[in-house]
Amino acid sequence: MKDSTPTPAAVLPAARTAVGYRRTRKSLAVITMVTAALGLVACGSTSKSAVTSPSSIAGGVSPVSRTDSASSGSSVSSVPPVPAMTSAGGGGAVTTVKMVQEWPVPDGFWIPWIVAKDKGYYKAAGIDLQILPPPNTAATAQYLGTGRADLAFDTSMDIVFGRAQNAPMVSIGNYGTQNNWGLISSKNKPLDFDSIKGKTIGTYNDSWSKAQLQIMLKSKGLALSDVKLVIASSDTVPLLLQKKVDAITGVTNAEGSELASEGMADYKIELAKDHGVPNSPVWVLAANSDWLKKNPALAQQFMDATLKGWQDAVNDPAGAVATFMRTYPKAQTEQYTTIQWKDTMALFGGSTITPATLLQKESDWTDLLKAANDFKLVKKVDASTDYFTNQLLGKK
Fold it and tell me: In what order do the strands lie in the sheet with 169-175?
């Protein structure tokens, strides 16, 4: 079912994230059902009714808000186990590997490992990959940091926040080659960044969005007080569509994809990386450091299988979207998923997916940590090499 009507931000609950992006086209029914399942687990239920399968969480497609993440000050503490969305198949012995996601509802960002799982690449490697939806985005870092999950699809800033709380978390590969966050405006009324003073900006109430905007403004000798901020309760896109702001903050494969699905594919974006903000990729694949030390061979098998699925998804985007829609038929619309995957593929630096595609640079982490420290997002930072490893990408 196509949902083409933007939902006013005011009707959605307030939310914050580590990177300040939102993705609409999600099912509120899905979150409700996942939360209910989690409630059963938290209450001590171990019955199969507490396990949520892809088909059982399908609901109507509608925008929902993103919940609080690690940037809001959530601690990496003990949380109840999250039910797996998939179960082991028949056949030979396999080792269960739990991978927690960045968002409580399936989205197009998951396509590489969804395709790899669908094609049997993990099973062939002796892995039963369980894709875990967190109850909220804060739980992604919590599950990884406490060992409730072995792997995660998370943000680079969540790794910074988690390690600041001494959580055993490490990034094992980039998901993209650049920071694609910026100021987005309409082509009909494009934002002139040189004349940004006094403009109205729609943004989110998280510390990293604020810091990135501050850095951008500082490049012009300005401060946050020189612009008018309108804090979106859930999604900045409706603010721009309804012409309530001059520009919004967001990323190309979330807010940008949403705008494209609403008929505004020709939007303009002023990328933060071009105005002093660290050019560190927003998302990463991550591992629990303790699990990685104990299971280096298993982790390598996971990475190799993931890369195969990733390449297949890039080679056949339509097939990849079809696999996603077949696995999670009502998580989001096919139109939005198609646009989102196309915009996401643009971040990979080419059509050939190799270990080098995910390779991390020490300079990116150094720049990110400096910004986090300068803007007091965390109380401490360690050596940049403590936050990432390229060992699964053929580099030591």
Answer: 127-132, 95-100, 151-155, 283-288, 169-175
CATH code for residues 181-275: 3.40.190.10
Gap between the Cα atoms of 152 and 217, Å rounded: 33
Q: Exposed, middle or buried: residue 88 (CB in 10 Å: 0-12, 13-18, 19+)?
A: middle
Question: pTM of this prediction?
Answer: 0.79
- The SS3 of residue 152 is strand
* % helix, strand, coil for the chain, step of 5: 40, 15, 45
Domain residue limits, the chain: 27-60+74-177+281-393, 181-275
CB-side neighbour CA atoms (13 Å) of 245: 25
Rounded (10°) angle between helices 317-327 and 296-315: 120
Distance of CA 167 to the CA centre of its chain: 19
Q: What was the pLDDT predicted at 246?
A: 98
Superfamily holding 27-60+74-177+281-393: Periplasmic binding protein-like II (3.40.190.10)
CB atoms within 10 A of CB 210: 19
Tokens of 264: 């505004």
CA 23 to chain centre: 9
| Residues 286-321: tens digit of each pLDDT | 999 999 999 999 999 999 999 999 999 999 999 999
The confidence score (pLDDT) of residue 223 equals: 95
CA separation, residue 6 to residues 182, 201, 262 (Å): 21, 18, 8
